[in-house]
Q: What sequence folds into this?
């Protein structure tokens, strides 16, 4: 909503009259109350009995009800009890008006029935107007909030519809990448491989080098396509939260990473008792990406160290993966979680720049957040909260 439309809505709300119900069997008293409340500029509705008041409540809602205690047939307390039994009026403010002294009035019963106040005769006009105006303004504020909520719900629905359409387009693009682009690329790579195997000994160094370069380019493009498909898959499907043993999950991932690189010696410290409420499949993907990143960027450290643990800061529990690798300049921290954003060259540290984007996507789907801290040559710490 624009500022101008909000001002216009507020102005409209201020000018809109609200309804006040005056219930009394005495026409003279009703006339007097109407004269007292007329300066408020609101719509004053009369009811000559409790039954008449209930009939009026079936037609419309009221900002406040002024209800006489002593009425023939159905008194004010009995009327209030029936008003409270109706869902639409169970919270409508009721001010009891009575000519009896406070000692003669069963005020306890009135408050039990939901009265917000008692006014005793003789009525002081300024006090009566002040009491009623409070509930008038409160009612207007509630109406304004309802309007904003309706507008917000409409905006949310519009955005949801738009996002659904975008996701469908992404799914179509993912299908296109998978079938229309990836397949020819694999065929191209296979052709290069065959040429090297069948005619490698007949080709000069320059030709063989060009074919090798084309194969590497094909492999990188395939990795990019695979990364895109991973990101697209993470935007669909339901999140199934359950208690996850992060310590056990991390231990298994570290063992797998060690198996792919047995020549390296890396000190890995995993805190005990790490848990989180998360989708187990997505939590494992997130941890795999963070640990693989730490493993890769500590490859040049004399003594590589990786720590997986948790901290409580300002009452919030956050998990982290910390390493003593190459680190990064915090001025570029905003780029870390973007798709295909890289702070190091391909020759220095291979990769397509999709891992941290995957981490951010998973955390966002859980309604959490992820961030990083580091320094060049001093390692990095990646925090996340589900």
A:
């Amino acid at each position: 909503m624009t500022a101008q439309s909000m001002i216009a809505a507020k102005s409209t709300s201020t000018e809109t009259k609200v309804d006040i119900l005056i219930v009394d069997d005495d026409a003279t008293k009703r006339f007097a109350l109407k004269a007292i409340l007329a300066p408020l500029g609101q719509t004053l509705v009369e009811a000559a009995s409790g039954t008449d008041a209930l009939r009026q409540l079936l037609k419309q809602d009221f900002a406040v009800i002024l209800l006489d205690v002593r009425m023939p047939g159905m008194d004010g307390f009995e009327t209030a009890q029936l008003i409270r039994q109706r869902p639409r009026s169970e919270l409508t403010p009721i001010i009891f008006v009575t000519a009896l002294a406070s000692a003669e009035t069963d005020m306890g019963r009135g408050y039990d029935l939901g009265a917000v106040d008692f006014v005793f005769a003789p009525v002081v006009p300024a006090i009566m107007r002040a009491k009623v105006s409070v509930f008038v303004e409160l009612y207007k504020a509630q109406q304004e909030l309802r309007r904003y909520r309706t507008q917000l719900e409409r905006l949310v629905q519009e955005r949801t519809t738009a996002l659904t359409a975008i996701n469908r387009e992404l799914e179509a693009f993912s299908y296109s990448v998978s079938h229309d682009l990836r397949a020819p690329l694999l065929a191209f790579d296979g052709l290069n491989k065959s040429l090297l195997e069948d005619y490698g000994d007949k080709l000069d160094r320059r030709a063989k080098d060009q074919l090798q370069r084309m194969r590497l380019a094909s492999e990188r493009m395939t990795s990019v396509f695979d990364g895109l498909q991973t990101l697209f898959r993470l935007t669909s499907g339901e999140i199934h939260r359950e208690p996850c043993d992060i310590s056990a999950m991390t231990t298994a991932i570290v063992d797998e990473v060690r198996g792919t690189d047995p020549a390296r010696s890396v000190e890995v410290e995993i805190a005990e008792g790490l848990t989180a409420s998360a989708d187990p499949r997505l939590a494992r993907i997130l941890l795999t990406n963070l640990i693989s990143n730490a493993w890769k960027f500590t490859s040049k450290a004399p003594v590589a160290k990786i720590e997986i643990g948790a901290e409580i800061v300002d009452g919030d529990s956050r998990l982290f993966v910390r390493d003593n690798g190459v680190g990064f300049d915090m001025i570029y921290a905003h780029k870390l979680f973007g798709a295909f954003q890289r702070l190091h060259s391909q020759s220095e540290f291979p990769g397509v720049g999709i891992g941290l984007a995957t981490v951010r996507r998973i955390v966002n789907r859980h309604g959490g957040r992820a961030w990083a801290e580091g320094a060049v040559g001093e390692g990095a710490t990646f925090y996340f909260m589900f």
In short: Confidence is low (pLDDT under 50) at residues 1-14. The longest helix spans residues 125-199.
